[in-house]
Amino acid sequence: MGLNNNTFPLATPTPLIDGFARRIDYIRVSVTDRCDFRCQYCMSEQVHFLPKADLLTLEELERLCAAFILRGVKKIRLTGGEPLVRRGVMNLFHGLSRFVDDGALRELTLTTNGSQLKRFAAELAGCGVKRVNVSLDTLDADKFRSITRWGALPAVLQGIDAAQAAGLRVKINCVALRGVNDDDFSGLAQWAHGRGMELTFIEAMPLGEDAAGNIEHFLPLGEVAVRLSEKLTLTPSSHSSGGPARYFDVAETGGRIGFITPLSHNFCESCNRVRITCTGELYTCLGQEDRTDLRAPLRGALTQKKRGHDFVAQQHGTLAPHARPMSMTGG
Ligand code: SAM
User: Fold this and answer.
1) Whole-angstrom distance between the N-terminal and C-terminal Cα of the chain?
2) Is the pLDDT reported for residue 3 higher than 70?
3) What pTM was computed for the model?
4) What's the pLDDT tens digit per position in 40-97?
5) Ligand 1 atom closest to residue 80's alpha carbon, by position in its atom list
6) Does ligand 1 have an atom closer than 6 angstroms to the CB of 174?
7) Is 115 within 8 Å of 82 (Cβ atoms)?
């Protein structure tokens, strides 16, 4: 009997299932630690960025993503830092777009501050990106500058225009901060919904150099809902994006508001994602320190291969001993 691929199909790769039987089919990949904003709750102004050699190259990022896709990952979100400030990042989007084309990936998307969207929106759409998350905490230009330190609101608004013109769906993500941007959440909702965009509020997490500041400004989203309800009618929605957000429909706008509450209401039981840093470390949880280095195996142990062994024939004819027996390594 002749052999062909049908006789011996390639083994189907096993899906990624964690120790709590949660299926992992979503990866968030940071492509750079750099950003053109310095959001107060995220980065210090004097942040030191990693040396370039520590970052995965775009080719390595693509290979890593491909390996995860092979293990059943269906959704990839590129993030950062600001993903669109990484030079050549569109090559990565183009590379990954073939997995969208052949159906292996259900979704290729990104989270961005929007500053570079005007430049890249059309090309992103051409790479099979259907929607983008844009982080925008306020529509007040002065406040925007103060929160982001370096950001300019008009550039972000132009980026959003460009994204919508390119046919991308836009979701606005707003970190709720007590005493900072808590004066006009309903205005943000009306603006977003008026433009056909979803809006999601996120609780500030105690991460980064100014974790203390985030704790000081922490605003539980229950309070945000109460404030929104003073002007808008919110009804719990059965909508689910497969992620951690809980949704409410807004009667006045016909739009939807999501709430992501990592602190006040943890949603870990339905977690389906892991994160990969721009240096190739796999974090299985945003809030835990356990991580696995994927860069070394990706770069290949072969680069460590020595020119030769260092068995040393000693003067009396014996060899300096190695503890590892041949039976362990293989003869
Ligand atoms: N530069 C991109 C952007 O601005 O969306 C992607 C990276 S940024 C780290 C991703 C998201 O994390 C943004 O929506 C940002 O507001 C949010 N973020 C950053 N630090 C946070 C924190 N300590 N708590 C909650 N959200 C945070």
Assistant:
1) 35
2) no
3) 0.89
4) 999 998 899 999 999 999 999 999 999 999 999 999 999 999 999 999 999 999 999 9
5) 7
6) no
7) yes
